[in-house]
Design goal:
The protein has 90 residues and is mainly alpha-helical. It is built from 4 helices and no strands. Helix 1 packs antiparallel against helix 2. It is elongated and about 40 Å long.
Length: 90
Amino acid sequence: DLFAPEAGLSDADRETQVIEVLTGMHDAATTVNKPGQKKAHTNIAMNIDKLIGDIEAARTAAQNHDLAPAQALPMTCLACHQGAAGGAQK
């Protein structure tokens, strides 16, 4: 939604909000496999390290004014959520 023209954000505001979202995603992803956490799906354990790496790369790029990796990040999620990954880590 942050990339939609209807959002009406300046480039600086978009970068700030994208970094905030990516930070939240990183925090959630790094805590999902902590001991004591309920694991809802085996793909979580299999793919979480790649997801964390992709989030971190997108956040680093966004901090350097490149939002393209953040904009492409949903494809990482969809690979598992739509079954395209076939359950295997990419």
